[in-house]
């Protein structure tokens, strides 16, 4: 295997550094699951046409839960994120679903475990291997000095928290040779949860992901773009293989496509799902936008996106989009990302 950017004399230093970093990374928590028969359902209303509808709120949030030496002093902010969500739950308006990225450090793990959700799943773990067949792999030379060392120091950092029971779940790692640069130090991938909402005739498939960064990866654009394309293929294959046919579906996460038209076009070519930003731009009369959007393509100004699809019986429609933890009054900025909150209407005959 050909490597670059890593002097031989640095091997001992790297070995010591790896042991320190592994000691500072948190293991994934155990899943939390409540029985379906104990679940409290949402408010369901009758429509004029004889059908029914309810709402589902989904927050995707990169909490910047990085461990030392990438970040330090993050524990107070992470604790406050958890406390705010608990306060929202006590007042009855916490998001129904939270998709978490960058739950890497012990402080981040504790914060997520303390969030007010009876149902939660996590993964992929630090050591999880890709399970689905895929022929694509990154080519050498591998840049060891930028993190392409062939092992992961952290898990994917992904979690799905749900007010409603999770009836099925799973995850898929992108793998150590479908990443580029510093991103290879975490075992990034995709996490799935299928939820049962009492009174709604179909389950909902939820997917959460965190994809390869751009310049922050520390390697060339050609290299990190190739990794992103490989991860896009794995994500698409996993969704196709796991999601139930004709079941409503919501995909969210940190896609790391901001200001990169090539990444975005490749991703959209692989995903038939509707993009919330585009849907709301095209339908301003029916989608309430309560956040600052600049330009004609606001989806290109953010890493944090949500996509959706309706099922055979249940129609999924975004009706409101908002920022959370964005520095506005009552919503302090506690991460290097804003939270992206979408209210969906679920309707059926």
Assembly context of the chains: single chain
Largest sheet: 8 strands, mixed
Low-confidence residue ranges: 6-23
Count of helices? Answer: 6
Portion in strands: 25-35%
Number of strands: 16
Distance between the termini: 58 Å
The radius of gyration is: 20 Å
Outline: globular
Nearest-integer average pLDDT: 91
Please give a structural write-up.
The protein is an alpha+beta fold and 349 residues long. It contains 6 helices and 16 strands. Strand 2 (45-46) and strand 3 form a beta hairpin. The longest helix is centred in the middle third of the chain and has 22 residues, at 221-242. The radius of gyration is 20 Å and the shape is globular. The termini are far apart.
Structure at a glance:
By secondary structure, this protein is α+β, with helices and mostly antiparallel strands.
Describe the SSE topology.
Layout: E1 3-4, H1 11-24, E2 45-46, E3 52-65, H2 75-90, E4 97-103, H3 106-113, E5 119-122, E6 142-143, E7 159-162, E8 166-173, E9 189-195, E10 204-210, H4 221-242, E11 249-254, H5 261-270, E12 274-275, H6 276-282, E13 288-290, E14 304-309, E15 315-324, E16 339-348
Parallel strand pairs: 1-6, 3-4, 10-11, 13-15
Antiparallel strand pairs: 2-3, 3-16, 4-7, 5-7, 8-9, 9-10, 11-14, 12-14, 15-16
Helix pairs in contact: 2-3, 4-5
């Amino acid at each position: 295997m050909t490597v670059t950017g890593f002097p031989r004399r640095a091997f001992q230093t790297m070995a010591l550094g790896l042991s320190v970093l592994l000691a500072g990374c948190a293991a994934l928590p155990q899943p939390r699951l409540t029985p379906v028969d104990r679940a409290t359902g949402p408010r369901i209303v009758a429509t004029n046409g004889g059908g029914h509808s309810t709402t589902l709120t989904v927050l995707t949030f990169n909490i910047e839960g990085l461990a030392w030496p990438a970040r330090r002093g993050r524990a107070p902010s992470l604790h406050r994120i958890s406390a705010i969500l608990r306060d929202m739950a006590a007042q009855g308006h916490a998001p129904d679903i939270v998709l978490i990225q960058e739950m890497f450090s012990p402080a981040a793990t504790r914060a997520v475990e303390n969030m007010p959700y009876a149902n939660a799943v996590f993964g992929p773990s630090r050591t999880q291997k890709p399970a689905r067949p895929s022929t694509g792999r990154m080519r050498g030379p591998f840049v060891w000095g930028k993190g392409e060392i062939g092992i992961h120091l952290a898990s994917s950092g992904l979690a799905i928290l749900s007010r409603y029971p999770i009836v099925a779940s799973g995850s898929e790692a992108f793998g150590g040779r479908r990443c580029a640069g510093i991103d290879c130090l975490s075992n990034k991938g995709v996490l799935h949860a299928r939820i049962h909402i009492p009174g709604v005739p179909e389950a909902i498939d939820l997917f959460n992901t965190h994809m390869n960064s751009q310049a922050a990866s520390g390697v060339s654009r050609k290299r990190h773009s190739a990794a992103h394309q490989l991860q896009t293929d794995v994500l698409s294959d996993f969704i196709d293989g796991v999601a139930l046919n004709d079941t409503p579906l919501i995909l969210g996460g940190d896609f790391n496509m901001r200001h990169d038209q090539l990444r975005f076009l490749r991703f959209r070519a692989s995903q038939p799902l509707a993009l919330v930003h585009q849907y709301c731009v095209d339908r301003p009369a029916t989608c309430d936008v309560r956040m600052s959007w600049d330009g004609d393509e606001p989806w290109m100004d953010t890493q944090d996106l949500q996509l959706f699809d309706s099922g055979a019986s249940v129609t999924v429609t975004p009706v409101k989009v908002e920022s959370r933890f964005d520095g506005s009054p009552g919503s302090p900025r506690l991460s290097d990302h804003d939270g992206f909150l979408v209210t969906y209407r679920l309707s059926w005959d």
